[in-house]
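User: Quick one: structure for sequence A, then sequence B.

Assistant: Sequence A:
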Amino acid sequence: MNRAILLACMVLLAQAFTSASAAAREPEESVTAGQKALQRWNKYPWYDAKHDDVQPVILAERKVEPPAEREMPAGLGEMVQVLARIGLALLLAAIAFVLVRAFLMQQRDDLPLAAASDDGDAARIESLPFPVAAGRLDLLAEARRHYEAGNYEMAIIYLFSFQLVQLDKRQFIHLAKGKTNRQYLREVGQRMPLLGVIEQTMVAFEDVFFGNRALDRNRFQSCWTRLDEFEALTAQVQKGHA
């Protein structure tokens, strides 16, 4: 009985030892199999077969080449040059036009303000809203003659006629049959200094021509002495429009 129990214990110890030996051999066999697999393929840059370890992987620096410059299509460069020359020529022509126009306007401004005896004046006088003696083209000279003779009523008529003709010449108003003095004032617009000169003469004219009122020397002189102001203002505003 005791012998049988001892034999059984020995068998169990032998089996346990055999199992432990097999279990100890399994990890070693797995490692060896893995090494052989890695060495056989040799496609893993991160594996060091000599030392059976992981090695750092050095990535090659990638060179980025700059984009190639685009070449201008054939003929486009010549077209750009031609357009640039045309633009420069147009600019020079515009500058020349402005200079010539300014010169001509200056020449016209330098002309005396006195009414000239030409066909244009005759047509303008015909368009006045009131009759003027035929053949009296030099309106300012007529105004001066009546003024010196003491005939202030006729003097103011010719003075106002002279102002309207000059305004039409300088394109501040457009003389036409049927238009009223108030319409001419509106055409002059909001140019207050010039408007004040014209309105003063116009009111004196209307008192005489439509109201049959007498005009004394002082009132006429207050209009007559503003002739230089009238000339300066019309020349100044005209230059501003050039």
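Sequence B:
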Amino acid sequence: MRPVFPHFPRAQDNATRGQTTGNSQEVLENALDWLVDGIALLGPDGDIVYANDALLALAERGDGFRIAGRTIEFVESNVRRRFRAALGAVGRAGKSPCDAGPTDFPVPRRDGLPAYIMSVRPLVCGQTPAPQHAQAGIMVLICDPLSRSAAASQILQKLFSLTNAEAHLAEALCTGVTTGTYAVDRGVSLNTVYSHLKRIREKTGCKSVPELIRKFSELNVPLRLSGPPNSA
């Protein structure tokens, strides 16, 4: 949850500036729809009060979980047990200071794909929810590592104006691959690799590979492309 919350005020601000009706419920829902991860606001009984577009899209896959009516249903019984336990822990925390125990757990998927990561938290600690969502006291976040990587790549490319090939090289260097190994694996010359690296340094303001790695690590966002590299 920690990497998500810093982006929420920005998303809410963008949604607010895009509103002309002044409807606070629409502002909140639009802000949630800006997020890459699936978000649901639940009532104390676990029923869905609101689900953003990302969560609805994940649920439609039926891979590990689905939405039936106003409830989130899980394929595996142990996940169902953990979810009920998390709801109970968060519900107890809502009656006292927000000190709920660990309520993060994986939701396995088919075909060996990386599991979803689910987090269950009190919606707001020590404050009253907005009137339109007064029933909601619980926030559920479901992260798809594959979707997050693709979105993060797009963000980083736009942030630094990296080309597809430059982003692939930056990703490889950040995972410990040397320039020589990268050239052999990709079937390109070292001159091409050095040319990409030079442009990466110019665009990011980094003078060395270690500095580049530190910069991307500080962003706390994985750099990965969904498509093959090219020489652009």
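The mean pLDDT is 76. Strands lie at 38-42, 48-51, 65-68, 71-74, 104-107, 116-122, 138-143.

User: Thanks, that's what I needed.
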